[in-house]
């Protein structure tokens, strides 16, 4: 029973502190000053080819599926 009490105390104190610091770190990372352009680009990426389809890849064989493309 001593091991359980030790692990319970550890989880209630240090693990809670560590997870709180990870959460605060993630929030700071998302709202950092240089991240606005990156987040805006990611948010608008689904609308990038809204008016016309994307250009086909000239190196790709038309009979070959996109997932089957060989790596060079």
From TrEMBL:
Tree of life domain: Bacteria
Residue ranges, compositional bias (Acidic residues): 56-65
Location of region: Disordered: 42-72
Cross-referenced InterPro entries: Cbb3-typ_cyt_oxidase_comp (IPR008621)
Matching Pfam families: FixQ
Keywords assigned by UniProt, alphabetized: Membrane, Transmembrane, Transmembrane helix
Compositional bias annotation for Basic and acidic residues: 42-55
TM helices/strands, residue ranges: 14-31
Protein name (Swiss-Prot/TrEMBL): Cbb3-type cytochrome c oxidase subunit 3
């Amino acid at each position: 029973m001593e091991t359980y009490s030790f692990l319970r105390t550890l989880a209630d104190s240090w693990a809670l502190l560590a997870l709180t610091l990870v959460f605060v770190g993630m929030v700071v990372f998302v709202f950092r000053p240089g991240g606005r352009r990156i987040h805006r680009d990611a948010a608008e990426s689904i609308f990038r080819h809204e008016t016309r389809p994307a250009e086909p890849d000239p190196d790709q064989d038309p009979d070959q599926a996109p997932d089957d493309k060989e790596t060079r």
